[in-house]
Amino acid sequence: MARILITSALPYINGVKHLGNLAGSMLPADVFARFKRAEGHEVLYICATDEHGTPAELAAAAAGQDVLTYCQEQHRIQHDIGRAFGLSWDWFGRSSSPQNHELTQHLANVLEDNGLIEERVDHMVYSVDDRRFLPDRYVEGTCPHCGFRPARGDQCDNCGRLLDPTDLIEPYSTVSGSTNIEVRETRHLYLLQTKLEEKLRKWLDSKTDFPSLARAIANKHLDEGLIDRGITRDLAWGIPVTRNGLPRPGFEDKVFYVWFDAPIEYIAATREWADAGEGRDWRSWWRTDEGASDVRYVQVMGKDNVAFHTVSFPATILGSQEPWKLVDMLKAFNWLNWYGGKFSTSSKRGVFMDAALELLPPDPWRWYLTANAPEGSDTAFTWEQFQSAVNRDLADVFGNFVNRILKFTESKFEGHVPAGGEAGEIETRLYAAVDEKLAALTASLDAMEMRKAAQELRGLWVLGNEYLQEAAPWTAIKTDQDRAAVIVRTALNLVALFARVSAPFIPFTAEKVAEGIGDAYPGAWPSADARTELARLEAGRAVHAPEVLIRKIEDEQVAEWAARFGGAEG
Predict the structure, then answer these.
(1) Cis link prior to 263 (omega < 30° from 0)?
(2) Span 349-363, pLDDT tens digits
């Protein structure tokens, strides 16, 4: 049994997340966590809300709340929606927690002790009309490298280059749109990433498990040349800047930069988890001198987060010279777009997680977003593709097989697993096909290749339908009761198998199926021996057909949703 630590990128606090956020971080992390738990491993899946920075302040002001109250309320909302989607976090913490305050301040002090932090007189953008310094993301303008507009003050979404706000051409405030901005002097702390380049390259070169997307982004930033990174900001909301436990002189009105403290929250949230329960030890998950050396640490995130997780956060950890656990496998996703454009709260483009659950239960969404995960490239959500995936995969293939055989068992075998008969040639061929698909599904999930894993799972479901068509129990029962019993028993074992392997993807539906055949839920991941797996259910066990597992999406619903949320012309 392995110990596996999983973290997904922290969702920002300012409002309910859209389906793209779900598809590119939290959902694939959840599928992987459920799979590894089913295999019998000790899994700790950690996530949290990212609560600091200007966006939280502005969102709170817009809501007429103080920022602490706003963050408390939004954390609860995001937690509840995530749980409704079946996200099986072991802990969903908060970056504003006392644990993160303590750990962030500790690491900053250690880095300074190691000669990796220095004070600098900085020149930052100040909005005269807004009467405030503008953090990176609240300055936009033209990228000096590729000419893209609007580029943000921390990164250009077009060419991917990391930026400082003062790099931008024709900058403006995104708070008010004002171009009445100027550069003023202010003092800030800088993490001297340039001193860590050799260590970072050596570490990255050792990460052979990083998929190509994550590796390419990381190498791009290293090859372009590291820059020393400011880790404080002129803000009121955030983690106070201290030195050896006391307020740092001259920094009383500053806080640590959100991108410095947010990744540290992975560790701090684990401490929150430990503090909330008896006998939990967070240090054995994160300190290699206290047991974490045998932990496999997996991070999941969208591509826009990769630079910070392969450069800035590792620089913090490596620079501390403390025995913290570093990531072993970083799974990065491209973007899920909305009909070729971006999801947008202000323009009401796209479906957000709360609205999605008003339309349908979570499993259709989970299936579509996993089966169409934006791995090799950006992908676009369309209502037509969503309808097709739900109707063809879940309703016609999976749901149809489960309901057909369970209803047939109810009508012809009084709702019990039948006894009698011996497996024949058709079953032998089925065992071989299931063995092959199971191995491919397991390998795809191990590699976190989500689209491929969904394809392999659908292939298993197809095998069930093909077996029923070829074996034809409705014909066999007319002349050979034992032969019909073999077919039905084998098909019911397929149902049991499908419930177990489908649970990471569609957990609520899988639970209904498991209940219908009297199986434990969640079940253990099956062995590689289909002959054994398709003989698990004992004769005489009571089974029953559940209610309709997946309802088809009608054309009228698609038209209604497209009008409400936007579509090709939205």
Answers:
(1) no
(2) 789 999 999 999 999
